[in-house]
Amino acid sequence: MLIDWFTVGAQLVNFLILVWLLKRFLYKPILRAIDAREKRIASALADAEAKKAEAQKERDEFQHKNETFDQERAALLSKATEEAKAERQRLLDDARKAADALNTKRQETLRSDAHNLNQAIRRRTQQEVFAIARKVLTDLATTSLEERISEVFIRRLRAMDGKAKEGFAEALKTASEPAPVRSAFDLPTEQRTAIQNALNETFSTEVHIRFETAPDLVSGIELTANGQKVAWSIADYLTSLEKGVGELLKEKDKPEAKPEPKPEEPSPKQGANEYGT
C-alpha cells in the first residue's frame, strides 16, 4: 500500500489550521465564557455566603432579642407576681388590722358600757342607801333630840380654836344682817338663850342672830355668816361618809397599776365645812 504523503501533509495542515481556528475562534471564547461563568458563579456563591452570613447574623440577633425579650418578660412577670403577692399581703394585713381595731373598739365599747353600767348601779345604790339613811334619821329626829344637839353645838362653839374663832368673829362683824341659826325644829327659848349666851361669851361681844327652821337639816344646827359656817349635824357625817364611799368607788374604778408604797395618810375629817373638827 502506497502512502500519499501530499495528502497526509495536506490533511495535517488542514488539521493544524482547524486546531488554530478552533483555538482562536471557539476554544478561547468558550474558556473565557467558562471563566466568566465561573467568576459569576464564584461571585454568586460569595454573595450567597455573604447573604447567608448576614442571614445567620440576623438570625442570631433575632434569637438574642427573643432570649432577651423572654428574660425581660420573665423578669416583668416575676416582678408583677411579687408585687401582686405584696399587695395581697398588704390588703390582708390592712384587713386584719382593721378587724383587730374594730374588735378592740368593740371590746372597749363593751368594757366602757359595762363600766358605765357598774358606775351607774353603784351611784344609784349609794344615793339610795344615803337617802334611806337620811330619811330614817329624819323620821327618828324629835324635839328632845334637837335639844341634845344644841348642847353639842354649844360645846363645839366653846371648843373653837383661836384662828377659827378670829375668822368667824370677823365674819360676824362684817355681816350686814343678823347671822342665821338654822335647825330642823323650833328650838325652845331656853336653848335659844343658851346658844345666844355661848356666842356672846365665845366672841366677847353681843352677837346678833336670828333663829330659823330648816326641815332639810337632818338632826343638826348651823350658824352662818359671810360664807363662814360652824355647825354640827348628823347630815354632815352622812355627807362625809358619802364622799368617802364615792372616792373609794372612784379608786376602785381606776385601771389597776403596779403596787407602789404610799405614805400613810391621816384619816378624813368628820363633818365637812366645820370648825373644831
Count up the helices.
5
Shape: rod-shaped
Q: How much is the radius of gyration in Å?
A: 64 Å
SSE pattern: HHHEHEEEH
Care to describe what's here?
- This protein is an alpha+beta fold and 277 residues long.
- It contains 5 helices and 4 strands, in the order H-H-H-E-H-E-E-E-H.
- Helix 1 runs antiparallel to helix 5 (234-253) and helix 2 packs parallel to helix 4 (189-203).
- The radius of gyration is 64 Å and the shape is rod-shaped.
- The N and C termini lie far apart (189 Å).
- Mean pLDDT is 77; it is low at 264-277.
Which features does this protein show?
72% helix, 5 helices, alpha+beta
Secondary structure layout plus pairing:
Blueprint: H1 5-140, H2 143-158, H3 162-174, E1 179-183, H4 189-203, E2 209-213, E3 220-225, E4 228-233, H5 234-253
Parallel strand pairs: 1-2
Antiparallel strand pairs: 1-3, 3-4
Short description:
Helices cover 72% and strands 8% of the residues. The chain has 277 residues and is an alpha+beta fold. Strand 3 and strand 4 form a beta hairpin.
